[in-house]
Amino acid sequence: MELRGKQKRFLRSQAHHLQPIFQIGKNGINDAVIIQIAEALEKRELIKINLLQNTDEIAEDVARILEEKTNCQVVQIIGRVLVLYKASSKEKYQRISKEVRSI
Q1: How many CA atoms lie within 13 Å of 7's alpha carbon, on the beta-carbon side?
Q2: Mean pLDDT across the chain, nearest whole number?
Q3: What is the pTM assigned to this prediction?
Q4: Residue 38 Cα distances to 5, 69, 70, angstroms
Q5: 55: left (phi over 0), alpha (psi -120 to 50) or beta
Q6: DSSP characters over 2-48
C-alpha cells in the first residue's frame, strides 16, 4: 500500500520527536543491520535511522535498499536522517498503523 500525502504528513509529525535508533557508519549497511531494522519496524512501526559522517553510503541508496529488503516505506529523508514506516503484522504493536489507515 502506497502512502498518501496526508498519511505521510501524519507520520512525519509523529516521527518529529523520535530519536534515531540506528546509526549506519563506516561498515555500511549489511544483512545484520537490515534484520535488526526489520525487527524494530515490526515493534515500533515508525523509526529514524541516522547515517554517520564516516559512512560512504548515500541516504537515497540506503532508503531504496531498505524498502526492497524490509518491505517498508520511506516517509522522509532529511540530509542524513531517514524516517521509515511499516505497519506491524502483530495486533499489539499496531498503534500508528491504525491511525494511518483511518486518515
Answers
A1: 20
A2: 93
A3: 0.91
A4: 24, 9, 6
A5: beta
A6: PPPHHHHHHHHHHHTTPPP-EEE-TT---HHHHHHHHHHHHHHSEEE
Residues paired with residue 51 on neighbouring β-strands, in sequence order: 24
Classify the phi-psi angles of 23: left when phi > 0, otherwise alpha if psi is within -120 to 50, otherwise beta. beta
Residues in contact with 61: Cβ distance below 8 Å, sequence separation at least 6, in sequence order:
none
Q: 34 pLDDT band (50/70/90 cuts)?
A: very high
Q: What is the DSSP letter of 82?
A: E
34 grid coordinates:
537490515
Query: Average pLDDT in the 66-92 region?
Result: 94
C-alpha cell at 13: 509529525
At residue 2 the predicted structure's pLDDT band, cuts being 50, 70 and 90, is confident
